[in-house]
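Bit of a strange request maybe. I'm writing a small parser for structure token strings and I need a real example to test against, not something I typed by hand. Could someone generate the tokens for this chain?
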Amino acid sequence: MRLFVAIAMPEEAQAALKRCRQELPRLRWTRPEQLHLTLGFIADLAAEKLPDLLAALGRVRRPPFVITFGESGWFPSARRPRVGWLGLVNTPELTALKGDIDGCLEAVGVPVEKRAFVPHLTFLRLQVGSAPPPNLALALATHCSPLAGKQCSVTDFRLMSSELHPDGAIHRQVAAFNLE
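Reply from user aminoacidic:
Good idea to test on real output. This should exercise your parser:
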């Protein structure tokens, strides 16, 4: 099973990116309802390990917290854009939850990402070698920049399945875990 653990994004972020998408419809946008902050990725989990993972995630105990939107940018760089992202400010609460999730994944034998955690939402992918349209920067500045500094409450995290299809991944919620 291809799975990931994530925080879903609020309507406000979805609406801002939906407006960008309407202005530039020919690009490969993340569907607004699929916007999320990935806390852990599981490339291939054997079905018999799913109950153990669900139990481990269910034991995570953290209080709800607030996340703050940051600036938008590009991976790997603005000169060679491939992935458009909207940043989130990394906080001690977010770092602690990420650490708990990593512990759950390791407990069921899933390797965790060793690179530094860079909280972000992927909202756009460009084809290799294609240049972004000239009005992309203006559309992002108009719709995404106003999100910078805004906050939203995080009250749960979710285990999601991800099925790859030619026109993009389909994400489905497997389970939700309340922060308390």
